[in-house]
Write a sequence for this structure.
């Protein structure tokens, strides 16, 4: 099982194929996801410190490009856990002053992803 390390929280094992935003929520990381996990708001931003996923959904690429964040952060709602990662959550609910993280994201990536190869060096 892949391990997710979140400095300041812990390291936890995640079932391969689980959506990262849900894995973080299930393990006590209060990361925002204000749009409900549809790659529309960028509040589920994470900085990947190790283990960058090598694919990106077109929705994530478009949203991060639009926000001028491509190559700097990833959206946890658009990542499927398949290998070990170390990451830093960037928009913590308690730090942002929000009343909650947002609607619970579906178990599968939404919108239905069109995956493309990704390397942060090429963004």
């Amino acid at each position: 099982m892949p391990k997710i390390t979140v400095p300041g929280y812990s390291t936890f094992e995640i079932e391969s194929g689980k959506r990262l935003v849900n894995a973080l929520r299930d393990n006590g990381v209060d990361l925002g996801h204000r749009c409900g996990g549809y790659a529309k708001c960028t509040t589920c931003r994470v900085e990947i410190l190790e283990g960058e996923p090598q694919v990106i959904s077109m929705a994530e690429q478009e949203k991060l490009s639009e926000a001028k964040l491509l190559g700097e952060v990833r959206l946890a709602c658009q990542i499927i856990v398949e290998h070990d990662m170390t990451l830093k959550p960037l928009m913590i609910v308690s730090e942002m002053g929000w009343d909650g993280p947002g609607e619970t994201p579906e178990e599968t990536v939404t919108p239905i992803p069109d995956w493309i190869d990704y390397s942060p060096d090429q963004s």
Notes: The chain has a mean pLDDT of 95.
